[in-house]
Specification:
four-stranded parallel sheet; LRR_FXL15/At3g58940/PEG3-like; F-box_dom; 29% strand; 419 residues
């Protein structure tokens, strides 16, 4: 470093972002201190002030570092801070700041949430933000935010939210193209109306019984976990869709024709059959289908899937290239009548990869018939993965079934793999 020109040294050091590294460099020499005003990014890890013995509070230390920077664009603070500290920092850097990430640590502190100004309220000072990420948020009351005219990405991870507070926050971000809410609890009903939104990931923690209404005509990717009722009417651009409910049931879905959909994933313990059949009907153009739903049935009753006609299913999804089939859907395709009337010339034209999960030797003959039919009619099939999980039966039928699967693999060893 001593042999390099000053300009090169300043260029290298101006790319530092970890606050501890910056502080250490400031102590080396005046030459190493000069790049500080030109930093674009500053990151304070969780342990930034571990072992700190100075007289200034951490809030003041951060303020002093920020006051020395002329045009900061990215600020990440994981170390503890106060609302007054945050307000003072943003007053310094609000005009240039584009990306802000904060570990709020107030998810259980109701008093901090209602204090004025709260940490959430202080964020409104950074009016030119393009992305905002918040960790550990308690949003009991609507945040006092003006409109973020440039905000394109909003991520909230680990939060307790009230419906009205979340709605108010989203209204302040009309230009969002990316919305992520992960590990959020307390939500009962959500309405999202964002005309520019393209990617949306929603993970609601709790009983899995909340409802979602989405009006986003440009949406391309949608992942939803924990909703029982979903209404997404404008879906002409939707290419990837994942719906899961690990705690509750999926009762109702309303999507309309999914003409652009390429990837569909349906997961959960129980879905009403009407919801499943509608999703399969609307997604006729899908290329990748993942199904891991164990039961159907209304309310408390857990029922197996009704029979799904093998030929009709694949005729209805002619572009299907990859099929991940687990649980009740595989059993439904393996019922006795499914392959009785295969029309002459029937093929599965585009199917290249199948992943099947087998958990029981029940109806082994029908299951083997379905696996053999996938190989027979899938003229372009390149890979079939058979996963055998938790086959607990001690009956000899388990051994016989496993022997049949091994035989199938031996006869088609270039395609079939057992895991």
């Amino acid at each position: 470093m001593e042999s390099l020109p000053d300009a090169i040294v300043q260029y290298i050091l101006s790319h530092l972002s970890n606050a501890r590294d910056v502080a250490v460099c400031n102590c080396v020499s005046k030459r190493w201190k000069e790049p500080l005003p030109y930093l674009k990014s500053l990151y304070f890890p969780r342990n930034s002030f571990d072992g700190y013995t100075g007289s200034d509070s951490p809030d003041i230390v951060i303020w002093k570092m920020l006051s020395s920077i002329t045009c900061l664009e990215d600020l990440v603070v994981y170390s503890p801070f106060t609302s007054s500290g945050l307000a003072s920092w943003l007053l310094l850097v609000h005009s240039s700041l584009k990306h802000l990430e904060l570990r709020m640590d107030n998810i259980t502190d109701y008093k901090a949430c209602v204090d004025s100004p709260s940490k959430l309220d202080c964020v409104s000072a950074a009016k030119n933000l393009e992305s905002l990420k918040l960790w550990g948020v308690l949003m009991a009351n609507p945040p006092k935010w003006d409109v973020f005219k440039n905000l394109k990405s909003l991520e909230i991870v680990g939060a307790r939210l009230e419906d009205s507070a979340l709605s108010a926050a989203l209204r302040a971000c009309p230009k969002l193209t990316n919305l992520v809410l992960l590990g959020c609890e307390g939500v009962r009903s959500v309405s999202v109306e964002l005309p520019h939104l393209e990617q949306c990931k929603l993970d609601f923690y709790g009983l899995g019984n909340c409802s979602l209404s989405l009006t986003c005509p440009k949406i391309e990717l949608l992942e939803v976990q924990g909703c029982s009722w979903l209404r997404v009417r404008e879906t002409t651009c939707l290419r990837k869709l994942l719906i899961a409910n690990n705690s509750g049931r999926v009762y109702m879905v309303d999507f309309g024709k999914l003409s652009a959909l390429e990837s569909l994933s349906m997961r959960g313990v129980q879905w009403c059959w009407d919801a499943i059949s509608k999703m399969l009907e609307w997604s006729s153009e899908v290329k990748h289908l993942y199904m891991k739903v164990e039961f159907t049935g209304d309310l408390e009753s857990l029922l197996p899937f009704p029979e799904v006609d093998f030929v009709e299913f694949f005729n209805s999804h002619p572009k299907l290239q990859k099929f991940d089939i687990h649980g009740a859907m595989f059993a439904a395709l393996c019922q006795k009548n499914s392959l009785k009337n295969v029309e002459q010339g029937f093929v599965i034209p585009c199917l290249e990869e199948v992943v099947v999960q087998v958990r029981s030797p029940l109806n082994a003959e029908q299951k083997m018939s379905t696996l053999e039919s996938l190989l027979k009619y899938g003229k372009n099939l390149k890979t079939m993965v058979i996963r055998i999980l938790q086959m607990k039966s001690n009956h000899s039928s388990s051994d016989d079934f496993f022997d049949e699967i091994c035989r199938l693999r031996f006869m088609n060893r270039k395609i079939v793999r057992i895991e």
